[in-house]
Design a protein that fits this description.
The chain is α/β, with parallel strands linked by helices and 239 residues long. Helices cover 41% and strands 22% of the residues. The strands form two sheets. Strands 1, 2, 3, 4, 5, 6, 7, 8 and 9 form a nine-stranded mixed sheet that branches.
Amino acid sequence: MYDPLELSKQTEKIVVNGRAKKYHRFRFTRFYGGSATADSVGCNLRCIFCWSDRAVRLPNKVGRFYNPEDIVDKLVELADLNRCNIVRISGAEPTIGRSHLLALLDLVESYDKIFILETNGILLGADRSYVEELSGYSRLHVRVSLKGCCEEEFRFLTRAKEGFSYQMRSLEYLRDYGVSFHPSVVSTMGKEMYLIERLREIGIREHSIEWESLKLYPPVKERLKRLNLLDRLSGVFVD
């Protein structure tokens, strides 16, 4: 097992170079009704169901470095081409490389676009000041992807020593600082009601929870086979 905070530091040394950060793809997607998407490189979790594969597990061999200006230019151009007003970063963990992300958000403020920050919330929950800085952006919405409904399920899905408490704390900080956000959840152990009650205690209503559907992409299938988990988890994946 590993420490997500330590892995964040190690990964940042690989995927961040000054103001630049590694990305490996730009695309238009149907998520959120249509969004221009930049797929970043490098993550601080190793989820057994992760579809990103090489971009997460081999960050030194994937992608190239881009400055914040490059990313925003590409996202805005892609959004305008497809007549959408949502831009986002996906594919890995965008909160790794704090100065890069904040510089990128500074630039997005100049455009009539909504920026959706898709994050596992680990670094936000570990440092309240990070969320405080995010609260200064008017075009930001944060989607926090919870890896399970409790610490036990988090460890099972991520193989990390800990981290669920950081995820929950990130939601509290986002609430406290008035940042627009919602939680999304990967659920495999049938503990949804436990999580719903915990979220209700911090003021998050059930209708705002996004329940994620998992797809059995080939790399995911092979990984689950290696872990002898394919049969156990086959029922939680969709075609």
